[in-house]
């Protein structure tokens, strides 16, 4: 499943207001600035900080 490019251009991280990067393999929207990955469930981005996965800072 892919995310609509029009939607991706408009979505920003709710914590930082910075652009997001779509990770198709993980089905997540990644905010490098916040160190968070927001899940996409059934094609719908879940843009809640409480639902986001923390990224491993060591890579």
Search tags:
mainly beta; five-stranded antiparallel sheet; UPF0434 protein GGQ96_002484; Trm112-like
Describe the structure.
The chain is mainly β. It has a single domain, classed as N-terminal domain of TfIIb. It is built from 1 helix and 5 strands, in the order αβββββ. It has one helix spanning 5-10, and strands spanning 21-23, 28-31, 36-41, 44-45, 53-54. Strands 1, 2, 3, 4 and 5 form a 5-stranded antiparallel β-sheet that branches. It is globular. 15% of the residues are buried.
* Tally of structural domains: 1
Tell me the overall shape: globular
So what's the CATH class?
A: Mainly Beta
Order of helices and strands: HEEEEE
Any low-confidence stretches, pLDDT <50, length ≥5?
Answer: none
Tell me what the CATH architecture is. Single Sheet
Give the fraction of residues assigned to helices: 10-25%
Please count the beta strands (DSSP E, at least 2 residues each).
5
Radius of gyration: 11 Å
How far the N terminus sits from the C terminus, by CA atoms, comes to 25 Å
Alpha-beta classification: mainly beta
Strand fraction band?
25-35%
On the 0 to 100 scale, the average pLDDT is 93
The CATH topology name reads: N-terminal domain of TfIIb
């Amino acid at each position: 499943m892919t995310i609509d490019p029009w939607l991706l251009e408009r979505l920003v991280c709710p914590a930082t207001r910075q652009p997001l990067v779509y990770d198709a393999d993980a089905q997540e929207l990644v905010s490098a600035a916040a160190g968070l990955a927001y899940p996409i469930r059934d094609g719908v981005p879940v843009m809640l900080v409480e639902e986001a996965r923390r990224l491993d800072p060591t890579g």
